[in-house]
Design a protein that fits this description.
alpha+beta, Aminopeptidase, seven-stranded mixed beta sheet, about 30% helix
C-alpha cells in the first residue's frame, strides 16, 4: 500500500459526493448500512440543509464532513454529527468507490479523520456506531484504535431504521 492517503474538509461544492453515495446505492447496500431509502431526504432538500449548515461557524455546525482522497482522487468521506463542542461527537465512515473497499485504506482514513475532529471541535472522545452486522467498518474502527463499548438496538440517525449497532469510542490522545 504505497498510495497517497489524504483527509481534508469537504467543501460545500462537494456535498453531492455524499448525497449521490446514498441515493445511488443499491437497496441491499443501504440495508447493510442500516439506512432506509424511504428516509433519505430529496437531493435538493439535503443540499439546502448543507448550505444552511455550512453558513454557520464550523464549531456550531450540526454536521461536519471530510473527504477521503487516495492518490488525489476522492474515494470516500467521513462525517461527524451529534456534536457536543469540547466533549464528543459521532463519526460515520464511507468508502464511495466500491473498487476501493476492503483494500485496507480505511484505517488510515479513520485515524486521520478522528485527529481532525479532535482538533476542530476540541473533543474528548469520538464515537462510531456502525451496523453490528457490517463487518468492515467494525474491523476498521477497531484497527484504528477505537475501543468496543457495547452493542444495542438503536436508530442512530434520521435516515436509519432500527437495527443492532456496535458502539465504539476513541478517547483524545
Amino acid at each position: 500500500m504505497c498510495a497517497d492517503v489524504e483527509v481534508r474538509e469537504m467543501l460545500l461544492s462537494e456535498v453531492d459526493i455524499r448525497i449521490r453515495y446514498f441515493h445511488e446505492a443499491t437497496d441491499a447496500y443501504l440495508i447493510g448500512l442500516g439506512v432506509d431509502r424511504g428516509l433519505l431526504p430529496q437531493a435538493a432538500a439535503w443540499r439546502a440543509f448543507h448550505e444552511q449548515d455550512y453558513a454557520r461557524p464550523v464549531q456550531e455546525r450540526e454536521n461536519y464532513a471530510l473527504v477521503w482522497e487516495l492518490d488525489h482522487r476522492p474515494v470516500g468521506f467521513s462525517s461527524l454529527d451529534h456534536i457536543e463542542y469540547g466533549n464528543q461527537g459521532f463519526m460515520h465512515l464511507h468508502i464511495v468507490e466500491p473498487t476501493q473497499r476492503h483494500r485496507g485504506f480505511g484505517t488510515d482514513f479513520v485515524r486521520k479523520s478522528a485527529a481532525i475532529y479532535f482538533d476542530v471541535f476540541e473533543l474528548k472522545r469520538v464515537f462510531c456506531e456502525p451496523n453490528a452486522l457490517n463487518v468492515a467498518p467494525n474491523r476498521t474502527v477497531q484497527r484504528a484504535g477505537f475501543t468496543y463499548l457495547f452493542s444495542h438496538e438503536a436508530i442512530p440517525g434520521p435516515i436509519n431504521f432500527r437495527h443492532v449497532t456496535t458502539r465504539w469510542v476513541l478517547e483524545r490522545p
